Structure of Thiol reductant ABC exporter subunit CydC:
Amino acid sequence: MNDDATSHPGPLRGLVPYVVREPRPFALVLVAGILAAAAPIAVAGLGAALVGRTVEQGRTGGTTGLTALLIAAAAGAAVSAWWQSDVSHDWAFRLLRTLRMSLFDGLARAVPGRVFGKRTGDLTAAAVSDVNTTELFFAHTAGDYVGTVLVSAVAVAVIAALSAPAALVTLAVMVLVAVVPYVLARRAGAQGRILREQSAVLGSEVVDGLQGLRELAVFGQGRAYLERLLRHTDEQHRTRMRYAGRAGLEQAVTSLLLGGGAVAALLAVADQVRTGGLEPAVAPVVVVLAIASLGPVAAVSATARTLGDVRAAASRVLAIIDHPAHVDSHGTIAASGDGRAHVRFSNVHFGYDAGTPVLRGATFDVAPGETVALVGRSGAGKTTCVNLLLRFWDPQAGSITVDGTDLRSFAVEGLHSLISVVPQDVYLFNTTVRENIRLSRPDAGDPEVESAARLATAHDFVTDLADGYDTACGEGGAQLSGGQRQRVAIARALLTRTPIIVMDEAVSNLDAESERALHEALVAVRRDHTMLVVAHRLSTIRTADRVVLLDDGRVVDSGPHEEMLSRCAAYRDLLAAQYPQA
């Protein structure tokens, strides 16, 4: 992920399309930002004018109108501050929702090729922490910057009408204060990028430790893990100190400029009063306006000091969002789940890495209503065939067709109505058993869910749970055993009613009795589905209609189990090595 994070050009520019996507709320944010920046300056100016008039006249009489204006301006300042905070944060958090949805769309397009090799904590940081960090840009940058520029321009014009020297001093200080963060922008960006990467690594280490607490305890590696965690924490601490040092330097320079500007404006006004170029009663107004007008610029400068972190976070998020789809997504044919399907692999070549082929011209088919078992030694290409059928990747040569139509011609998002899968590593969400089964068909009724569970031999154990189908599975299905998780996953696949069912070692965690019951239950189901099974158990191989033997990415032979035993020496050798009892 680090490479991607550094490759996205102009990350803040990449956020602009999200800003302009909702012009009406953005317009409200701009108006609120202008009012919030202008109101305090108006209060300060009116207050100074009131003091000046009182000093000039030596009494408070005749200032009723000015006093009323001051009170109204103070109330307006309070209301505008509240309104600006409300509309900007409401808008920002809605944009964060859109941004997070775009990020998950990007991950979905890239699954699983881009996700393989990425640590869970790294992806979690992008989806949560990095997206949240962009809130600073949406809520405190876009509207504030526009409001500050407009209000500052008006303030300088008003000051210039009263005192040209004070206006020049104010304008010069504004420019210098605004420039300071950009002088150090490159350093801030580099520090922010390192900080984001270290935060992702630290988060990944924490996730690893939480998920592996049992292993750490069993093997006595808790202390070693804590030391590794502390090293990452110390590295991040040093980076944060450098980040804080740079931000502190910017703040010190900004404070020096603001203080110097206030003194310079005061001296310029005093000189004008001394030479008769400015009325004494007007002098407080000019000085206060000059100082107050620097406030919005100082606030924006403070925000700009944190933009290095925002740029780094935005770059990591946009790198995922803008990453091209992992497979060609230009297919337009809507996949139909009606009827049965004929699957054919034709001279398929594929490798995950260039120069390392996994499949070398694999050719086989699965007829409608047929169950085919893929067998072979580890690394032969069995799971790769499943991955290609699910379009996690596309073949580099050859084709995979369903009823004569190349998979690449189907719309990717519609494949779930054509193919369902029981994966080797089952993941259950931290919700009820019922909702985990219903994941494949959210509109399924409770009777359909229970019927699928019965077919998967899951109903009996589910009803024995404390809350039956409403029992929470825990994170990743931690509250269930491996065999129970697999049966829930099988029920989930059966609920879809897709014509093609893929099972990748789907019975590996079942005991012999549960496996036998499942095979018996699936007899009727198999007649109505095209089933491709990655088989690692002899019982699964024997119950298949046909066996396809893969070796080094090639189909060596295929046929019914008994025929393969009699004619294929490679098949007999495989069974002898993996299933001595055969």
Notes: Confidence is low (pLDDT under 50) at residues 1-7. The beta strands are 343-350, 359-366, 371-375, 397-402, 405-406, 419-422, 500-504, 530-534, 546-551, 554-559. The chain has 22 helices and ten strands. The first strand starts at residue 343 and ends at 350.
